[in-house]
Amino acid sequence: MGELLMTEPDELLFDPIDWQQMQIMAKLTPGERMMAMAQASAFGHALLRGALQTRFPDKSLHEINLMMLRYIERQKEREY
Fold first, then answer.
1. Which residues are paired to 18 by β-bridges?
2. How far is residue 66's CA from residue 52's CA, in Å, rounded to a whole number?
3. Which of 36, 58, 60, 71 is such that its CA lies 20 to 30 A from the CA of 21?
4. CA neighbor of 52 nearest in space, from 66, 42, 64
């Protein structure tokens, strides 16, 4: 998701649109779009898990997963 930038109080600016990616996504069926979304989500979770395992090598997988859940919940709270 693009970063939201505030320039003026009433003006919002978004990252440029990737038109090629939009055309590719438009050609997908709804099921294929959901699969792409699920794969992107899994990739993001894997990146987060890898970063936490690198930062905390002594933590168990269970502890890393709990840290991930706390991190994701904090991010959800910040969005709203």
1. none
2. 11
3. 71
4. 64
Question: What pLDDT was estimated at residue 1?
Answer: 45
Alpha-carbon torsion, ordered 48, 51, 55, 58, to 10 deg: 70
Predicted confidence (pLDDT) per residue in 17-73, tens digit = 889 989 999 999 999 999 999 999 999 999 999 999 999 999 999 999 999 999 999
The alpha-carbon radius of gyration of the chain (Å, integer) is 17
| HEC letters along the chain | CCCCEEEECCEEECCCCCHHHHHHHHHCCHHHHHHHHHHHHHHHHHHHHHHHHHHCCCCCHHHHHHHHHHHHHHHHHHHC
pLDDT, position 77: 83
Residue boundaries of the structural domains of the chain: 5-79
